Every structure is written in C-alpha cells, then in structure tokens.
C-alpha cells in the first residue's frame, strides 16, 4: 500500500550531477510528514517528483497505486488534480485576482458557481485576505501571495497536500493559523508533506520528520 511510493529514485537535471540519490519513500494515506534539510539539499526537487512535474532519472515512483514512471503523459493531469501544491515561489497567475486564483481548482473540478463564491470568500477571509479578494498578485506582499497560494492548494480538499516552505513569509501568528489549517485538513483525511527549513515546526506539531542532506533522504530516529 502507500499513497506514494518511491523505490531507489534518482534525479539529475539535464547532464548535471545527480541531486537526489537512492530515495526510498512511502507515504501512507492520512499520514503527515515534515521534510527538513538545508538550502540546496533537494527538497524542492523531491517535491517536483511528487507533484509529477518531473520524472525521476532512475527508480520507480507510484502514486495513488499507479506506476507514474511508466504512465503516459496524458494520464498525469487526472492524478495532479488530486494533489494540492504550495510552491516555494507561489506560481500564482498574475492576471487573475486572489478570488480567481483560489477558485481555479474548484472550477476545474466542476463545482457550482454559488458554492465556489461562498467557499473561496470564506477561506480568503479566514487567511486574513478579506480585503484582497479582488486584487491581483503583482499588487500583493510576499506573505499575502503565500496565503493565496495556500488557499488555492487547500480549497479542493486534495488527497495529497505538498507544501514547499509554506510559512516562510508569514508572521508567527499567521504561520500558526495556517499550520492549524493543515492539521484540520489532515484530520479530514488529506495526506500532508511539508518541506521547510524551520526546525521549530516539528517541535510544535508532532509529526514524523524526514531529512534530506545532499540528496540523501533519512528518517529521524
Ligand atoms: N532547474 C534546475 N536545474 C538545474 N539544477 C537545479 C534545478 N533546480 C535545482 N537544481 C539543483 O538541485 C539541487 C537541489 O535544489 P533544490 O531546489 O531541490 O533544493 P532545496 O532543498 O529546495 O533548497 P532551498 O531550501 O534553498 O529551497 C541544487 O544543487 C540545485 O542547484
Ligand atoms: Mg526549495
């Protein structure tokens, strides 16, 4: 079993050196892990394999019980729809308002307009962006953009939530609020995988820690 399974996975960019080595990883449904590691260790690279933006250069990756290393490219979007991602650099659409950025996954899922309106507005209020609903990302602060990115990732209650340094630009109170949101999501069944440099997070929220060092993955004792 395992929602996610990596066996002996390696990744290199182009003809460069390998940046992930011999990664074995199993994420069970409903689990919650932190991924710690210094800058350049490979955290974002590992996440890019998890949200199917890249394929490994060796080894096997399966997600939702499908071998995605062999799966045809056109089968990936359907799997991606089950995954929410908070990118390290947000990846918001600059020409869309906060509302429309967050509404996107619900529209793709075919949710009705009235429910989209209610859910998106409620969540944006909840993350403290009630006054930014109709604002586009280029007119927002880094922390505001980060909150839009988190809202977009969680709005559809994905099966798997991947977050890359999701609280990096937030003040302590807002970081705490979003961490509570992640806890709640996990309680409702979402599998979480959160990459961070912030070693205080696993101290405050008791979830198992995986550590990346120079492309090698280890579980904390
Ligand atoms: N698109 C890319 N092309 C070539 N090399 C890359 C690319 N992205 C990352 N790398 C290299 O892969 C290694 C791991 O980078 P990665 O971004 O995964 O680290 P990280 O742990 O997320 O770091 P940070 O904490 O600074 O975000 C680094 O040596 C980096 O230079
Ligand atoms: Mg990174």
Q: Brief overview, please?
A:
This protein has 221 residues and is of the alpha/beta class. The protein is built from seven helices and ten strands.
Describe this structure in words.
- The mean pLDDT is 95.
- This protein has 221 residues and is an alpha/beta fold.
- The chain is 33% helix and 25% strand.
- It has helices spanning 43-50, 76-80, 98-108, 113-126, 142-154, 172-187, 200-204; strands at 4-12, 18-27, 32-36, 58-63, 66-67, 83-86, 160-164, 191-196, 209-213, 216-219.
- A hairpin with a 2-residue loop joins strand 9 and strand 10.
- A 6-stranded mixed β-sheet has the order 6-7-8-3-9-10, with helices on both faces.
- Magnesium ion (MG) binds at residues 43-44, 88, 164.
Give the overall form. globular
Question: What structural class results from the helix and strand content?
Answer: alpha/beta
Terminus-to-terminus distance: 23 Å
Strand content: 25-35%
Helix and strand run: EEEHEEHEHHHEHEHEE
Poorly predicted residue ranges: none
Ligands, deduplicated? adenosine-5'-triphosphate, magnesium ion
Describe the sheet with the most strands: 6 strands, mixed
Number of strands: 10
Quick tags:
221 residues, 6-stranded mixed beta sheet, 7 helices, globular, binds magnesium ion
Topology:
Elements lengths: L3 E9 L5 E10 L4 E5 L6 H8 L7 E6 L2 E2 L8 H5 L2 E4 L11 H11 L4 H14 L15 H13 L5 E5 L7 H16 L3 E6 L3 H5 L4 E5 L2 E4 L2
Parallel strand pairs: 3-8, 3-9, 6-7, 7-8
Antiparallel strand pairs: 1-2, 1-4, 4-5, 9-10
Helix pairs in contact: 3-4, 3-5
The structure holds adenosine-5'-triphosphate and magnesium ion.
